[in-house]
Amino acid sequence: MLNFFALMAWYPEENREIYSVPELVVRFRIEDLGKASPVFDMDKLTWMNGVYMRTLLERDPGRVVEVCLPALREAGLLEGTPTEAQRASIRRVIDVLGERLKVGRDIVVNGDFFFKESVEYEPEAARRYLSELGIAEVLSALRERVAGAGALDPAGAEALVRTLAEERGMEAREIVHPVRVALTGKTAGPGLFELMALLGRDQVTRRLAAAVDYIHRTAGS
Questions:
Q1: DSSP label at residue 104
Q2: Partner of 23 for a Cys bridge, out of 19, 77, 103, 125, CB 3.0 to 4.6 A?
Q3: 132-172 pLDDT per residue, tens
Q4: Do the Cβ atoms of 14 and 47 come closer than 8 Å?
Q5: Is residue 14 part of a domain?
Q6: How many domains does the chain have?
Q7: Residues 165 and 117 sit within 8 Å (Cβ to Cβ)
Q8: CA-based diameter of the chain, in Å?
Q9: Same structural domain for residues 146 and 104?
Q10: Residue among 168, 146, 165, 166 nearest 157 (CA)
Q11: What is the rounded CA–CA span in Å between residue 152 and residue 52?
């Protein structure tokens, strides 16, 4: 907030957006104040908060977890005081979300699927990527491969998807997008292979199976 309010009317010569308090004290000059009325830019404030969150994550990750807890509770994704295991899980979600976490509520907006047993598909996402029986076959084949794999890490998840795409003469993206919708219900989000690893083999196979069932139930409707 300090940087945001300082830069609403102050235009330093150097092209920077984030200053420490000592730096502001040293660099601030009355001559650099603009003459126009300052504008409260909410998008800029959100962006700057994201920069602050990433900096705080490096310095005090536990504090970032605390910032996210109220949003998780409000969404019904967390009850009471989290255990150490839950805190560690939330921290891993924060790491995977990366720049998509600008404010505490973003953990729900962009990562609610990490905390649910099942997902609801966004209507447009389902229409675009989960509407063909051919996709059901692909998702079913991937589910079998994930189920037969060992520990699922990002590199392993990527190898499974790319190998399947190559064998079927498809572009990797033709599999990536339907898989993302199957696992998250959304068309956008953090890296697919990272989120597959974080969800884990069991959760990934369950959601792929659920997506296959959904396609068979709704095909042609």
A1: T
A2: 19
A3: 889 999 999 999 999 998 889 999 999 999 999 999 999 99
A4: no
A5: yes
A6: 3
A7: no
A8: 68
A9: no
A10: 146
A11: 31
User: pLDDT tens across 78-129, in order?
Assistant: 999 999 999 999 999 999 999 899 999 999 999 999 999 999 999 999 999 9
Counting every residue written for the chain, the total comes to: 221
CA dihedral 196, 102, 26, 32 (to 10 degrees): 130
Token readout for 153 is 């890490």
**Residues 191 and 158 occupy one common structural domain:** yes
Residue 196's CB is within 10 A of a number of other CB atoms, namely: 26
Q: Which DSSP state fits 187?
A: S
Model confidence pTM above 0.85: no
Backbone phi, psi, residue 149, to 5°:
-85, 165
Inside any domain, residue 37: no
Dist. CA 99–CA 53, nearest whole Å: 9
Measuring CA to CA, which residue among 146, 116, 125, 151 is closest to residue 214?
A: 125
Interatomic CA distance for residues 107 and 58, integer angstroms: 17
In 3D, which of 103, 145, 107, 128 has the Cα closest to residue 182? 128
